[in-house]
């Protein structure tokens, strides 16, 4: 049992590390690269690909959450034991912070490096489209709720086996296409926290919203699924075996 717990924690660390490095790395290193920049579309695809590949690599070990909001939603939906939540969140945060440190080392490794906002999430003056706090809050709550609905539906007992990672990855891509202009897209407190440590001071000042909104959205999405959409109330049906 202890070995299974450690494996799940390591899988969450690795998956969140990959999501943060791949997604935020594409934004910091490639989004505006002269003449070959991938832009918002490329960043959105990169985030989707990190979740898709991470789900198949690490999902069988831990469930492939890579996101404190997803883990909370899984608890609310009855897919994970509440006692597992603190360990998942701790290792997700550790993975995101480690990835941000690696990314900062790479991005600052050239003369005159300008890291800008370092892929941090923000609102108001720090929103890519200058959207205010209320717009950012609504956007993050709704996008996270939809993300949870897709995750829970794609991983339900009656869903097509083997395709959950594709559906979840494409959903995250679409979420980024919608919300990058609003908040630079969080829907994931760990992804927001790691870069905030290396970004300008405003990122840490506004970090509270990128915890509160995704967590609230996850609860809403999980409650909607469990109350209205779930075919069977199967408690712990997709919880890791420990």
What is the compact description of this entry?
With about 240 residues, the chain is mainly α. Helices cover about 65% and strands about 0% of the residues. The chain has one domain: Up-down Bundle (Glycerol uptake facilitator protein).
How would you describe what is shown here?
This protein has a single domain (2-229), classed as Glycerol uptake facilitator protein, CATH 1.20.1080. It is an all-alpha fold. It is 67% helix and 0% strand. It is globular. The chain starts with a helix and ends in a 13-residue tail after the last helix.
Strand-helix topology:
Layout: H1 2-30, H2 39-62, H3 68-76, H4 85-107, H5 133-154, H6 164-183, H7 189-196, H8 201-205, H9 209-229
**The first-level CATH class name:** Mainly Alpha
Binned, the helix content reads: 55-70%
Rg from alpha-carbon coordinates: 17 Å
Distance between the termini: 5 Å
The fraction of residues in strands falls at under 5%
The CATH architecture assignment turns out to be Up-down Bundle
**What is the residue-mean pLDDT, rounded to a whole number?**
93
Task: State the total count of DSSP E strands.
Answer: 0
Principal-axes geometry comes out as globular
For the record, what is the CATH homologous superfamily label? Glycerol uptake facilitator protein
| N to C succession of SSEs | HHHHHHHHH
Number of domains: 1
Largest beta-sheet details: none
Low-confidence stretches: none
Structural class: mainly alpha
Tally of DSSP helical segments: 9
In the CATH hierarchy, the third-tier topology is known as Glycerol uptake facilitator protein
């Amino acid at each position: 049992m202890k070995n299974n717990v450690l494996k799940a924690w390591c899988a969450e660390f690795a998956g969140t590390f990959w999501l943060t490095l791949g997604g935020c790395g594409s934004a910091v290193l490639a989004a505006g690269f002269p003449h070959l920049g991938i832009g918002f579309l490329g960043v959105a695809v990169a985030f989707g690909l990190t979740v898709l590949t991470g789900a198949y690599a690490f999902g069988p070990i831990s469930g492939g959450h890579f996101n404190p909001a997803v883990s909370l939603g899984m608890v609310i939906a009855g897919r994970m034991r509440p006692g597992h939540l603190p360990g998942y969140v701790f290792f997700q945060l550790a993975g995101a912070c480690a990835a941000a440190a690696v990314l900062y080392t790479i991005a600052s490794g050239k003369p005159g490096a300008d890291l800008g906002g370092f892929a941090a999430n923000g609102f108001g003056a720090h929103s890519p489209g200058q959207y205010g706090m209320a717009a950012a809050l609504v956007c993050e709550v709704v996008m996270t709720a939809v993300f949870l609905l897709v995750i829970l539906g794609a991983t339900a007992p009656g869903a097509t086996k083997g395709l959950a990672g594709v559906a979840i990855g494409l959903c995250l891509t679409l979420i980024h296409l919608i919300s990058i202009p609003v908040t630079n897209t969080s829907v994931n407190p760990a992804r927001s926290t790691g870069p905030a440590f290396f970004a300008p001071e405003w990122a840490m000042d506004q970090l509270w919203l990128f915890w509160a909104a995704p967590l609230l959205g996850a609860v809403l999405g999980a409650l909607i699924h469990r109350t209205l959409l779930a075919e069977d109330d199967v408690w712990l049906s997709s919880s890791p075996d420990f």
